[in-house]
Amino acid sequence: MAITFHEGDLPPDVSFGGTVAIDTETMGLNPHRDRLCLVQLSAGDGDAHLVRFRKNSYDAPNLKALMTDPKVTKLFHYGRFDVAMLLRYLGVVSAPVYCTKIASKLVRTFTDRHSLRDLCRELAGIEISKEQQSSDWGADHLSEQQMAYAASDVLHLHVIRKKLDEMLAREGRTELAQACFDFLPTRVALDLAGWSEVDIFHH
Q1: 19 domain-assigned
Q2: How many domains are there within the chain?
Q3: What confidence score (pLDDT) does residue 132 get?
Q4: What is the pLDDT of residues 148-191, one digit of tens each?
Q5: How far lies 9's CA from each of 12, 41, 53, 83, 91, in Å?
Q6: Which of 68, 131, 163, 181 sees the fewest Cβ atoms within 10 Å?
Q7: Which residues pair with 41 in a beta bridge?
Q8: Are 44 and 19 in contact (CB under 8 A)?
């Protein structure tokens, strides 16, 4: 596994093919309060690219172009949060998207275990550590442990997606999943506009 670290943006010559796995690290879970610190990306080839952002410095034209490229699917786990952070801080709507957590909840109805750690274990046969999850991602220098943790969040998403796609097709829920993925940017817009805890479809 190779981890390549970038300050502020991706270089212009990096390609991730037709699907790029993406995750973010932030100062907390409130997009209005907690800033975006790191974006991790992988083409599913066993390598990861980490883009670190300094406070109030989010001019990243190459990363923004990737996020909005209609020919590249952005692959997330719990994309609702990551898409919100990318919209809030980079000002771009990530599309098209695929979310492994949504796919898992639609097709793995025999369990309530839908975390990335659970999916890595059960669908990819890999144990990942969450030890660095609550560390300080805004620090001036990220440790090797932090960077390895961040990379692990994107390295296995392509394999997990393949397994989930097979299950969705088997259960006849592929089109339903796609409709949910297509709706995700709208769900994010509702979150950021103040409807994060309100189900507008409820009576």
Answers
A1: yes
A2: 1
A3: 65
A4: 999 999 999 999 999 999 999 999 999 999 999 999 999 999 99
A5: 9, 12, 8, 17, 14
A6: 131
A7: 22, 49
A8: yes
**Amino acid symbol at 190:** L
Q: Is 202 a member of any domain?
A: no
Please tell me the predicted confidence (pLDDT) of residue 134. 75
125 lies in a domain? yes
CATH code of the domain in which 170 resides: 3.30.420.10
Asked if residue 57 belongs to a domain, the reply is yes
The conformational region for residue 8 under phi > 0 = left, psi -120 to 50 = alpha, else beta, is left
Q: Domain of 22?
A: 3-195
